[in-house]
Amino acid sequence: MNRRESLKALGIGAISTTVLLEACKQTDNAKDIPLKANDKPTAGKEAWEVDRDKELNDEKFFSKEEMATITILADLIIPKDNISGSASDAKVPDFIEFIVKDMPEHQIPMRGGLKWIDLQSYSRFQKAFVDAGTANQKAILDDIAYPSTAKPEMHAGVAFFNRMRNLTASGFFTTEIGVKDIGYVGNTPNQWTGVPPDVLKQYGVENLKI
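RE: above sequence
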């Protein structure tokens, strides 16, 4: 399984630009994913955007069972570690629920993929994916997480998992938890301590005096 280090690259580079931009435009800061129906309008959103967010949040697309599967998948993709919380701690399942309503082109592939992964679990372990246990769940994901080595008959699963992984990374790394996980601190005034010694050495100017 690709884990945090690989997903950091996904979260800030390889994800579909459309997915990332659409994900970001729905929030004013990392804590507001997605805007709840009772939230007050915030700076940076026009009235129609606030109304649309409320409308989308009042709708439900995924069933309770589907959301349970999404939560498990998201946490297998980005588990909790000693640096930060898991995908579900960052409310990634809620983000995915919101995105598929905001970007309906995700709805059929996501719902179909959730059914596919359940059928795989029933076929192998005679249980729904959520009940199959972590080892069995990972066994299924190992067969679809690496497109270059996946068997041809796993094509549908690979396509679904690519989408699920991209949405998970987009959701996680656009939250406060995810930003802290990367270590990004933004512009910090009055904290410049000069070029790091290893960089100076790399360019052969470590002894340069200014």
